[in-house]
TrEMBL record:
It comes from Sitta europaea (Eurasian nuthatch). This is UPK3B protein. The lineage of its organism: Eukaryota, Metazoa, Chordata, Craniata, Vertebrata. InterPro entries: Uroplakin-3. GO terms for cellular component: membrane. It comes from the Eukaryota.
Length: 146
């Protein structure tokens, strides 16, 4: 899909911090591609690792947050595709890296944990159905944390 994820251009408290960044919510992007049972994921990768990222073939293959330091990427923010439809009432932004509970050892992925370094990072949205990936956005421009 031609959509490119991006940090909101407006002044926003905590738009980019040392461990998180805000992303504009991709409304209407997946309409016409998604079924009721589909989910949208956010792939997060170090900018230099985004080209090597391979879409998982099933939910069981989703790369977990704890692999970010070694694999250079993970997936998070699994959301029902309907939440991104044109008609869905939703907050205008998503927070990447906002879940500090991910540090807990017993915590199960997918986790939206604090980002471990300034990056830069690149992100893309991936529409997944029960049969695997169905559609994806382009990668964002590199996002550098403070």
């Amino acid at each position: 899909l031609p959509y490119v994820p991006h940090v909101p251009p407006t002044a926003l408290l905590g738009r980019v911090t040392a461990t998180t960044f805000a992303l504009e919510r991709p409304r209407c992007v997946f309409d016409g591609h998604a079924d009721a049972s589909d989910a949208v994921w956010l792939a997060v990768a170090f900018a230099n690792a985004s080209a090597a990222f391979r879409n998982p073939l099933s939910r069981a293959d989703v790369p977990p947050y704890k692999q970010l330091p070694t694999a250079g990427s993970y997936m998070t923010l699994e959301t029902a595709a309907a939440a991104y439809s044109c008609s869905a009432p939703s907050p205008p932004v998503l927070r990447v890296g906002g879940d500090t509970a991910c540090r807990d050892q017993g915590r199960q992925d997918p986790c939206n944990g604090p980002l471990p370094s300034p990056g830069p990072y690149r992100v893309k949205f991936l529409l997944m159905g029960c049969g695997g990936p169905k559609a994806e956005t382009r990668w964002s421009e590199p996002i550098l944390l403070r």
